């Protein structure tokens, strides 16, 4: 995939764990020892898609793997391990039925946050990957990822204040997806970790596979 345009059809490539669709970031503003970008990672046929914010907060600038290195990233990884999606070393793990990616995949210098313009520049890459994975359950982590997913993949963003404590582990029906937001782990209080683990386990125990465009769970 070139940096200037997206192909008309992105094929599902199952033999590549990292960057299965060959995305190429449109810019490199990373520090010298960091990866240019932290690409999507995991099972390209997954039913569960965990969406983080950017490498500086959720990790991967040196490993190239989302949800590594940082406190928030490792807390999300531990939840994914507990529900049985992940195994192996923390920085090079195997994912089954789960895919990880970031709204803003590029690394940035000196730990700074992406600007609104930088987020906008990468929107088309994130959208292409999310639609190619075509998961049933979207799990956005933190306010930025949750806002993006609710705005673009549901018709319900106007119904909610972006109160992540209230949205944490809550079912929100989308356009072909069920959205379950996750509050930033650094902000978790008693019971928050257990709540998201229990929610994912309940989904796994149900018939969560949805009719696209209806987004319902049965069971």
TrEMBL record:
<keyword id="KW-0411">Iron-sulfur</keyword>
<dbReference type="GO" id="GO:0051539">
    <property type="term" value="F:4 iron, 4 sulfur cluster binding"/>
</dbReference>
<dbReference type="GO" id="GO:0046872">
    <property type="term" value="F:metal ion binding"/>
</dbReference>
<dbReference type="Pfam" id="PF03167">
    <property type="entry name" value="UDG"/>
</dbReference>
<dbReference type="InterPro" id="IPR005122">
    <property type="entry name" value="Uracil-DNA_glycosylase-like"/>
</dbReference>
<dbReference type="InterPro" id="IPR051536">
    <property type="entry name" value="UDG_Type-4/5"/>
</dbReference>
<feature type="domain" description="Uracil-DNA glycosylase-like">
    <location>
        <begin position="39"/>
        <end position="158"/>
    </location>
</feature>
<keyword id="KW-0408">Iron</keyword>
<protein>
    <submittedName>
        <fullName>Uracil-DNA glycosylase, family 4</fullName>
    </submittedName>
</protein>
<dbReference type="InterPro" id="IPR036895">
    <property type="entry name" value="Uracil-DNA_glycosylase-like_sf"/>
</dbReference>
<keyword id="KW-0234">DNA repair</keyword>
<dbReference type="GO" id="GO:0006281">
    <property type="term" value="P:DNA repair"/>
</dbReference>
<keyword id="KW-0227">DNA damage</keyword>
<feature type="region of interest" description="Disordered">
    <location>
        <begin position="1"/>
        <end position="32"/>
    </location>
</feature>
<keyword id="KW-0004">4Fe-4S</keyword>
<keyword id="KW-0479">Metal-binding</keyword>
<keyword id="KW-0378">Hydrolase</keyword>
<dbReference type="GO" id="GO:0097506">
    <property type="term" value="F:deaminated base DNA N-glycosylase activity"/>
</dbReference>
């Amino acid at each position: 995939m070139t940096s200037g345009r997206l192909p008309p059809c992105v094929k599902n490539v199952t033999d590549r764990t990292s960057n299965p669709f060959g995305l190429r970031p449109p810019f490199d503003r990373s520090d010298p020892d960091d990866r240019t970008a932290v690409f999507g990672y995991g099972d390209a046929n997954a039913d569960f898609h965990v969406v983080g914010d950017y490498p500086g907060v959720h990790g991967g600038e040196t490993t190239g793997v989302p949800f590594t290195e940082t406190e928030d990233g490792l807390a999300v990884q531990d939840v994914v391990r507990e529900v049985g999606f992940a195994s192996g070393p923390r920085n090079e793990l195997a994912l089954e039925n789960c895919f990880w990616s970031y709204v803003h995949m590029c690394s940035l210098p000196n730990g700074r946050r992406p600007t609104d313009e930088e987020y906008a520049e990468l929107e088309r890459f994130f959208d292409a990957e999310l639609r190619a994975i075509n998961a049933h359950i979207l799990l956005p982590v933190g306010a930025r990822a949750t806002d993006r997913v609710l705005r673009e993949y549901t018709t319900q963003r106007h119904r909610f204040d972006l109160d992540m404590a209230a949205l944490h582990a809550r079912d929100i029906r989308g356009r072909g997806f069920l959205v379950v937001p996750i509050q930033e782990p650094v902000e978790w209080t008693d019971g928050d970790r257990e709540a998201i683990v229990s929610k994912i386990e309940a989904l796994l125990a149900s018939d969560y596979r949805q009719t696209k465009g209806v987004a319902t769970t049965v069971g």
